[in-house]
Amino acid sequence: MLRSTESYISDKDHLNTICDEFGVGSTKVSEVCKEICTNLKSRSEEILKVWPAYRRSNPYRIVFVVITKSAVTSKKDVNIFEDFEVLLRGKTEKNVENKQVINHEVDSLTRIDLSQMEKLRTVIKDHSKTLREQHSNITMISASPFKSRGFMKGKHTLERKDCVVLYVHVKGLIPVQETCFPDVLDGFPVDVREAVIQLYAGGQPSDRHDQLKMGCAIGPQDRKCTGTLGGFVDIAEHGLCAITCAHVVIEEDNLKSKVLKETICFQPSIEYSNSKRCGKVVNHCFSTRSEEKSLDVAVIKLDKERSPVSGQFPDISKKDLIKAGFDENQTLQFTSGKVYDSSDIKENRDSRLIKYGASSRLRIGEFRFLGADIAKGPLMYSGNIELILDNLMQIYDIEGCGPFAEKGDSGSLVFSVSNSDSELTAVGMLLGGDDGFSVATPICDALYGIGCAAPCNLKCFDMETNRKEGMLYVRNVKF
């Protein structure tokens, strides 16, 4: 329903007249656009958000970006009948530019060398806060060895040039009262691409494991949400605990609260008949725009009867083992508790990465960058909390091996596989991703954030005990 108030601007010509008189960046235009956005959003429950923008090529005309729950093709589908220029975009929709760049990086075997990676990491760290404050549409900041050109004009080319990449949901539209992105940051060119970082909570269930294992599906007692149980860690105050992502087990409204609401966790999630309590959340760290700490991690104190007895994972198919480079008869496990810090991750960047998630199970990926910054996650469309995370690992999918992670994999540990003896070393905890790549928190950042002292490590399981239970240690990895 249109508002009956005379102040509501209901046609493009009237809006253009105001823009010409006061300027697109004026307070007057901002106020008018705010009222229009509120009105348009009220038209349909399918609409999640509406924001006004302008094009760099035409800074005097307004385009309203309408974010919807799913893709729609016409304004009429969401009851918008005015002649305003409207761009409709589903909440996870984006163009294929970034996926094409990723494919070319992988196919051409092109990577950023370590010295340049460290420089780019510093640039992102130095500028990310200011960029987020000045540009509300940024979803992620990372780096690439290729500068993408001409995609929006149908003349897509790639130039071999290390660059900072600013990711947005909708490329080519600048929010009203904001300026264009910088072309250069500390000598590095800036590229702009589309990406929507999705947190990987959700997905398929796993069987109940009375003795918990890394990679089990878990969830809270008060909502249907599935994530992955990450690693185990001994904490003096609580004893044996498990870690996962805070967004998996804590309701969105409570994520930023300093007072921890009692949350009981179940494995698997409560919507399944074989669900059983496995512990309760005793600590969490979750970053918001107002905080400097940049983490998404929760600590679950495990019920004694659900305590793990080995470093084994749930069942893995022979097909997945082969795809990940292992022999089909091997049993994968993580017994050492060994972790890599940031410098170790970079030094071992040529080692393949694996993870076992509750949804996609065993998958293999390729390390690409350390120092990525998520400025906003999908929470911007589902609530009032903005996700701010930095110093993240960016992991590329490997062609023919499936996506590295999917919904339901949030919280799973990411491991580096030694090329010499196939030993697993934990390097990160998976958060989410987009087409072609995933992002993970470096494991030491997560452990330090929950109070573990350096040098930190995860739970070490006795190899002799595992052998008595008929488990074999993984050897002779094949690539």
Give the helices and strands, then pairings.
Blueprint: H1 12-22, H2 27-41, E1 47-55, E2 58-68, E3 86-90, H3 97-107, H4 114-134, E4 138-149, E5 157-168, E6 174-175, E7 184-185, E8 188-194, E9 198-199, E10 217-220, E11 227-228, E12 232-235, E13 239-244, H5 246-249, H6 252-255, E14 264-266, E15 277-286, E16 296-302, H7 318-323, H8 342-347, E17 353-357, E18 361-374, E19 389-397, E20 413-417, E21 424-434, E22 437-442, H9 443-449, H10 463-468
Parallel strand pairs: 2-3, 5-8
Antiparallel strand pairs: 1-2, 1-6, 4-5, 4-18, 7-8, 9-21, 10-11, 10-14, 12-13, 13-16, 14-15, 15-16, 17-18, 17-20, 18-19, 19-22, 20-21, 21-22
Helix pairs in contact: 1-2
Structural commentary:
The structure is a single chain. The chain has 479 residues and is α+β, with helices and mostly antiparallel strands. The chain folds into 3 domains: 12-90, 2-Layer Sandwich (GMP Synthetase, Chain A, domain 3), CATH 3.30.300; 97-195, no CATH class; 217-468, Beta Barrel (Thrombin, subunit H). It is built from 10 helices and 22 strands. A 7-stranded antiparallel β-sheet has the order 11-10-14-15-16-13-12. Strands 17-18-19-22-21-20 form a 6-stranded antiparallel beta barrel. The protein is globular, with a radius of gyration of 24 Å. Mean pLDDT is 88; it is low at 1-6 and 464-479.
